[in-house]
Amino acid sequence: MKRENGFLLLYGSSYSDQNIYYMTKFLSNDPFLCIVSNNFKRKFVYLPEMEIDRAKKEAKFDKISSYNNYNLDELFKKYKDADVAFGKMITDILHEEGIYIVSVMRNFPSFLYKILEKEGISIDTIKNPFEMIRRKKTKQEVEYILKAQKAAEDALITVKKILERSIIKKDYIYYNHSRLTSEYIKAVIEKRLLDNDAFCEGLICSSGVDSADPHSVGRGPIKCGKPIVIDIFPRLMTERYFSDMTRTFVKGEADDKFIEMYNVVLDAQNIAFKMLKPNASCRDIHLSVCEYFESLGYDTIKKNKKINEGFIHTTGHGVGLDIHEPPFIGDNDNFLIEGDVVTIEPGLYYKNIGGIRIEDIVFIKKEGFVNLSNASKDFVIP
Amino acid sequence: MKRENGFLLLYGSSYSDQNIYYMTKFLSNDPFLCIVSNNFKRKFVYLPEMEIDRAKKEAKFDKISSYNNYNLDELFKKYKDADVAFGKMITDILHEEGIYIVSVMRNFPSFLYKILEKEGISIDTIKNPFEMIRRKKTKQEVEYILKAQKAAEDALITVKKILERSIIKKDYIYYNHSRLTSEYIKAVIEKRLLDNDAFCEGLICSSGVDSADPHSVGRGPIKCGKPIVIDIFPRLMTERYFSDMTRTFVKGEADDKFIEMYNVVLDAQNIAFKMLKPNASCRDIHLSVCEYFESLGYDTIKKNKKINEGFIHTTGHGVGLDIHEPPFIGDNDNFLIEGDVVTIEPGLYYKNIGGIRIEDIVFIKKEGFVNLSNASKDFVIP
Q1: Chain A neighbours among B 97-136 (CB < 8 Å)?
Q2: Alpha carbon of residue A118 to chain centroid
Q3: Shared-domain flag, residues B153 and B23
Q4: Total number of domains in chain B
Q5: Which residues of B touch A30 (CB under 8 A)?
Q6: Pick from B223, B266, B293: nearest CA to B357
Q7: What is the enclosing helix (H) or strand (E) of A199?
Q8: CATH code: domain of residue B176
Q9: Model's pTM, two decimal places?
Q10: So what's the ipTM on this one?
Q11: Signal peptide position in this chain (chains A, B) (predicted)?
Q12: What digits encode the pLDDT tens for the residues A320-367?
């Protein structure tokens, strides 16, 4: 590694920065340093002494070195500032390795950036070099996503059973003699996810007018005859991959208006499905969905960016180690590639009645796509 | 807000950046922009249109504005780069507000930093201005931490019952006719935490030689007579605060060596406890713990930074919205203040036999401290 260029400097926690996890496959709550050759083939990692043995056991690196070898403690005592000391240590590491030019990603902390620059390191800020490689999911990655998806479906089946077994009294839904609430359903889902080694932070079960806000997590008793939007995006605790699925139910009887909306959303999803294949334009997919909604008189963000009713979000997004990752299926220049895993999630939202969303997760393959979601699309639960 | 200085620019996801959550109390998976006056009294938030209504409902801001008002979509179409477009939008927002000088935190993304600089914004990178205010926990915050701690204790009681009811056959532990594993215990803990609206990402139940690595999460069947280290650091799903607790058990009979180690760790913890009060030096506390271990012949990082056996980590850390936050009770210049919530967690680790750690979480008050942990410190479970 002497006198070489072409290295990328990564710094962060692999719990929160998925590029670092993708590259290192080493989980650490505390931020750490990793130097990667630009072809991603060689990886050098620098960690607190206490993490060295675990890194040797749990991950594969070309070099694992302790901060102790670079006297981080002494640097800290000298500069009395942990960030400054860390910046100096990085400089020492780079000098030792003969690296004077490094790339960093756009989210590299500006303070560390300035220290390195001041120390004479030439820094090139680059666009996410992992974007395309992370988009093209391997068989293993698809299996992980499918495992997360199965966890979501398993949880959804339990919720459906609860809704089926519930009874209606004066507009409210009762299960086991108690009023059914968003909180109860979320607790049930969370437990079923855990049975499958998955968890979902920010799980959505919103009902009635609450569901008109796509990101409302939902609270309180659930009424019959109103939409119940359940959006489950579980992450595997061990393998770290996500899936993402939404289903909307109505308990009891649904107004014609809701049934019409539900069918329109379902049709909109099918319009997107028909366009899914490598090289398909994300803009075309999203605009086709919008145009379909508009042809039936529903407002969309295509026609009017400022709306807060109708189809008010994009059609989908990539899913993997991040819950929202490229490609984004909206009005942009993304094109699908073989290996993409994306959601297709049209929805309609109205402040005074609520929202309906149907979301599947699909894998883009040479000949088109495979729907990784296997959950039924029943809407009305009698 | 015209022609004013003294503003801090925050940008990130409030799920991953706790300073942003602390300031906004608004949860969003996607990064967003917040401008805060330097006295933290005025807060202006900028969000995608879709989040506006939820922000109005869920949080309190002096101004909530949509990216639409700043034509983010048009900027994106013009620059064909989401980060560049976002940087330009921030510049426009700052210009509109008459702000030409802003502070950013050290982790502010370097790419955005450079765009703002190029656009003529004068940027001052500052050390975390929330550090002291976040350290000084309010009554409400202590209640949240206590709630998380109760969830941890509730889970631990369940684990103890399982260990009590287990039987030993040929070195292994059996519960309900099955070999007891780390995975099983972790699943039990996770479910009990969920019952209390809490979850723990990276939960530790390591046993035998695995427990010699303080951060090993543990796996596989558990043997009798060997340490079982259970480290639970649950976060409240709604209120977002953490607690942190570790207990070590031995099922069956413990060697004298383990009993001696356990008592030494317990005594070390008590040595730290006796020093806890406002203005106590974190260095003094940590070094006193190290000296006690060394006086009994146990190696520590005080004497030898390069060790990987003995007492190989620091004595404790602050806990709040982050699981590891200031103050750090190690060889540094931190002093405790009234309102700190910190862990005291001495431990001894040996590669060929395993580890023992005892961790309590305490609140520093005027007269000393309150131990927020109420879990028993039984070691051997017959």
Answers
A1: 104, 106-114, 125, 127
A2: 36
A3: no
A4: 2
A5: 324
A6: B266
A7: strand A198-199
A8: 3.90.230.10
A9: 0.92
A10: 0.88
A11: none
A12: 999 999 999 999 999 999 999 999 999 999 999 999 999 999 999 999
